[in-house]
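re the bet — no i am not wrong, look at it urself. input seq straight from the record:
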Amino acid sequence: MDQNHFTMDTLRKKGAHLTFEERVIIQTRLRDKQSYRSIAREIGCCVNTVRNEV
Protein backbone atom coordinates (compact mmCIF):
# COMPACT_ATOMS: atom_id res chain seq x y z
CA MET A 1 0.00 0.00 0.00
CA ASP A 2 1.42 3.38 -1.03
CA GLN A 3 1.70 6.24 1.40
CA ASN A 4 0.68 9.66 0.17
CA HIS A 5 2.08 12.98 1.31
CA PHE A 6 0.56 16.37 0.68
CA THR A 7 2.87 19.01 -0.71
CA MET A 8 1.99 22.53 -1.74
CA ASP A 9 -0.94 21.89 -4.14
CA THR A 10 -0.24 18.32 -5.23
CA LEU A 11 -0.47 14.81 -3.84
CA ARG A 12 2.97 13.25 -3.30
CA LYS A 13 3.45 9.49 -3.63
CA LYS A 14 6.05 7.61 -1.63
CA GLY A 15 9.11 6.85 -3.76
CA ALA A 16 8.44 9.61 -6.30
CA HIS A 17 11.33 11.73 -7.51
CA LEU A 18 11.65 15.31 -6.36
CA THR A 19 10.41 17.89 -8.81
CA PHE A 20 12.46 20.85 -9.97
CA GLU A 21 10.29 23.13 -7.82
CA GLU A 22 10.92 21.00 -4.72
CA ARG A 23 14.65 21.12 -5.37
CA VAL A 24 14.50 24.91 -5.65
CA ILE A 25 12.61 25.06 -2.34
CA ILE A 26 15.31 22.94 -0.68
CA GLN A 27 18.03 25.19 -2.08
CA THR A 28 16.41 28.45 -0.97
CA ARG A 29 15.45 27.15 2.48
CA LEU A 30 19.02 25.97 3.09
CA ARG A 31 20.25 29.46 2.19
CA ASP A 32 17.79 30.77 4.79
CA LYS A 33 19.36 28.40 7.36
CA GLN A 34 16.24 26.26 7.86
CA SER A 35 16.62 22.72 9.18
CA TYR A 36 16.30 19.62 7.04
CA ARG A 37 13.30 18.59 9.11
CA SER A 38 11.38 21.82 8.49
CA ILE A 39 12.17 21.67 4.78
CA ALA A 40 10.99 18.05 4.57
CA ARG A 41 7.77 18.95 6.37
CA GLU A 42 7.13 21.80 3.93
CA ILE A 43 7.53 19.74 0.78
CA GLY A 44 5.99 16.59 2.26
CA CYS A 45 8.89 14.19 2.08
CA CYS A 46 11.19 12.28 4.40
CA VAL A 47 14.09 14.07 6.12
CA ASN A 48 16.49 11.59 4.51
CA THR A 49 15.28 12.65 1.08
CA VAL A 50 16.34 16.23 1.83
CA ARG A 51 19.70 15.05 3.22
CA ASN A 52 20.32 12.90 0.15
CA GLU A 53 19.49 15.78 -2.16
CA VAL A 54 22.05 17.97 -0.40
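see?? The longest strand covers residues 4-7. told u. also The mean pLDDT is 83. so pay up
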